[in-house]
Every structure is written in structure tokens, then in C-alpha cells.
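Q: Got one fold?
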Amino acid sequence: MTVPLFQARIGAYLRQAGDPGRPPERRGRYYENLLTYLLGSVPGCHLQRNTLNHYGTEEVDITVANEKVDGGLRMLPDLFLVECKNWSHPVDSTTLGYFVNVVADRGCSLGILAAANGITGHQEHRSRSHAIGAAALVRGIRILLITDEDLNKLEKPGDLVALLHQRNLSLTAHGTIHLG
């Protein structure tokens, strides 16, 4: 059975990003490259990578301009940010809170956190993460979480569109970050 090109590329990026023989910063760049490839394959998405603010204190991994065209991210805002965390462990609540503030500082209403292993599994920090997600929503900031498990299921660009639209809907329904 032949694996379609889209799936093969995702697999190749994830293998490179997960290679323990590579330095962590290199694995992180492969993960950013993967998210750039995925979002760049969505109709109407234009990307800018690795942008520092004027003061050099905050870096945005990927900034997305979304034209909201047919087949694209019509349920998402015109501009949003993507943070890539290719960590071997789940992202903690402090990192999530920092990302929420970066999204707010850029005047955006949406941030996508691509966290290879999700958000922390420790109950105390998971509760904090959900509280941060709920508080961000009250501030008008939406945080969508996607994981490697999600990325491995993608077969075509439309699957990423469907995933992000579903996460956006689930965020509203649950009132905080949700993976369902």
C-alpha cells in the first residue's frame, strides 16, 4: 500500500522532529517546519516564521494571515499565531499562560498551540491550564491545542481544516482548552 504524499511528509517531519540523535533546537525547527508545511497547504493561509518583537523579548513561531477562502479556515480569524512545542513531555501551565499573553500582546484573538505531547498530565497543572484557557476565552482569546496524535491522523489538508474548526467549536462548547 502506498502512503499518500501528504501523509508521507508528515511522517518524515515527525521522525526528524522526534530523532533523539538531533539537538533539541534542531528537532524544534523540524516541528516548526512541519506546522509551516501543514498550514501552508491550507487554501488562503499566508505565513511568516520566527518573528521577534521590536524589543527582542518575544518570538512568534508562525504568524498566519487567513483569507477565509473556500476550503480554508473560514471559522478562524484573519490573523492568528502558532506556537510549536516539540517537547518530550507535556507543556506546563506557565508556558501556556505565556503564550496567551503573547497572543494578547499581538492584538490577536486566536493562538494555536502545537504541543507534541499535549498539556501537562499532572492534575494540578492540568487544572491550571484549563483555568488559563477559560480565562483567556473571557478575555476574547481562543487557544486551540493540537498534538502529534492529531497530526498523525491527517490524510489531506482538509483534515487539518476540519480538526481546527472542530477544536474551535469544542472550545466554545466546553469553555476552555479541549482535545475532544
The chain has a mean pLDDT of 91.
